[in-house]
Structures are given as C-alpha cells and as structure tokens.
Amino acid sequence: MDSPLFSPLEIRSLHLKNRLVMSPMQQYVSPEGLVGAWHLVHLGSRAVGGVGLVITEATAVSPEGRNTLFDTGLWNEAQVAAWQPVVQFVQAQGAKIAVQLWHAGGKGSHAHPAAGFHYIAPAEGGWITKSASAVSLDPHQTSQALTVAEIQALVGDFREAAIRAVQAGFDAIELHAGHGYLFHQFYSELTNHRSDEYGGSFDNRIRLLVETVQAIRAVIPDVMPLLVRLSAVDFSDEPQAWHLADSVRLAAVLQQHGVDVVTASAGGFGAPDRSKVVPLYQVPYAEKIRAATGVLTGAVGLITTPEQANTIIASGQADLVVLARELLRDPYFPLRAAAALHTKTPVPVPYTRAF
Length: 355
Known about the structure:
Keywords: Flavoprotein, FMN, NADP, Oxidoreductase. 52% of the residues are buried.
C-alpha cells in the first residue's frame, strides 16, 4: 500500500524519493570549519536510514559567520574538498543532500557548548560580532551595526559559498533565515532599528535576504533548488514583532525570486509558551504559508511518529516533513515508518535481512 509520506517529489530537476527530510542540527565538531569522519557517519547513516533529503547543519559563509569555533564552513577550497566525500556517500545511498548556508550575525563568537557556550572576545580568539543594528543578543556583548558596504560584502560571501556548494556536489542549497541569525536580525523589527535602505519598511528589512537569494540564483544552475528556512513568528508580544502574516508576505516575495521551498520554523529572540509546545505545534505555520502562496513548504516541530508525518503530507499541510531530534534518536526512522505504514521503500542490501 502506498502512503503519501513515501510519495516522490520533484523540485526543479531534483527527484526526492520520499517526503522525509533530515533537519539541520549543529554538531560542533568542525575546527577550522572542516567536516570529517563524524559527518560522514552522522549524515551518511540518515541517508542509509532512508530519508529523501539530508540538509547539513548550518554552514558558515565566512569565519565571522560562525556561532562557535567548531561550526562547519564553506568559505575556502579545503572545506569544499572535505565536503565532497560526505556528499558522494549520501548520494550513493539514494538520498539527496542540501547545504544550509548561514551567518550568525550578532549571535556569533561563542565557545563550544560543552565549555559553557559563552561569548569569546577577540583577545580570546573570537571576533566583534555585527548585526543589523547595535543590539545585544548576548548578555556579555553588544554587536556593532553593519555598514552598507559590509552588507554588500556579506551578499558576496553567500554568493561565493553557493559557488563552492556546486563544486562540492550538493544537490540543493538552503539559506538559514530564522532562529535569530543574521537574516532574521534584519527582517524582524525587534533587532533592526536602521533608517537606511536596509531598515524601516518591510521591503527594506527583507532586502538583505532578497538580494542574497538573487545573488545565489544567478550563480547556481537553474535546475538546482533553493530553499529558505524562516522563523514564521518571533514568539514575542512586542508590537514590532514578526508575525505569521509577515512570513506569508515574505514567502510570496521569495517565491517570485526563485525560492522553491520554505521551511517554517519559529523563534530566535524569544521562547514560546511552554504549555503550547506540543506535538505538531509549528505545523500550522507551514500550512498557512503553503495555502496562501502555493510555495512548497516543510513542516517542523515535535513530529515523532510515522502516523503524524504521514498525516501532514496526506492532509496537504506541508510538502515535506523535516525531522530533527527524532532522527537523532533513530537514524532509521524512515525504514521503520515504511513498515508501520505498510509501504515498501528501498532498503540497503546489507540491511535487508532486518526488513
């Protein structure tokens, strides 16, 4: 019996064998931004486990774009070479792989989480963080406001990283524009207090993201999908907070500029009411954006069972189910889900005796 969760999806020229996606999750094991054996096993095992699309953890476009000194990068050729065997292994398992490009902005320059995740000053090997405005996104430091020239240079960093992503063999690119990182710092009025062409009006606040999308679309193959992860809401009661209606409006603009998929996450500057953090609590964001714009969407948020995932696709709430912690707990969730849903899916030959 076929199930919607295991139906294929075409995105430009990209063929996904099912609707299950591995969500980006930071690993903090990449000195100098280099991936290695950990990522080969970490990402490769989820490909063996049957997901249709693997999305890497947030990968910085410059050294100053990192959150910690141990985040992955794609700002030099050594990093391209390090990514290539990981990409090739994932693809050899029948999965596709996208790199999530990212800049932490004012949330950068932190120690490893195991060392306390505290801000690291330049004298300690860190750097001066920069954001849309001079705001404090860390209790121990205030970011500097980016100049227009620096903003334009950042767009160039993303463009060059996209070129390297193509060289590394990635099937698609996702921009991380949520969770309080650089693009979110620009489009949310909670952190953008500028009065120039990158601040004030809605169009000005989304300008950096739109210009980056345009720059990337201009240098990657037309057949290569471009995805964006947004924070659909700010989880704030402040009148200037970002709301779902803003995300719908932004998604429509991004679609016009060649974005193929919007994954609707949330938060970054605040936390949700814990009483409302229940299974599927963020799925309505993807559903609303999809219904209002027609763009393909990915749903996230406490999705833990095959039945939940299948219902999201069957009901038209989203086009992709993006799993994070559940895939940490069970790399073979897709194979288990197929069995639970009485659906056939390819199983790696060495594992067939178990299925």
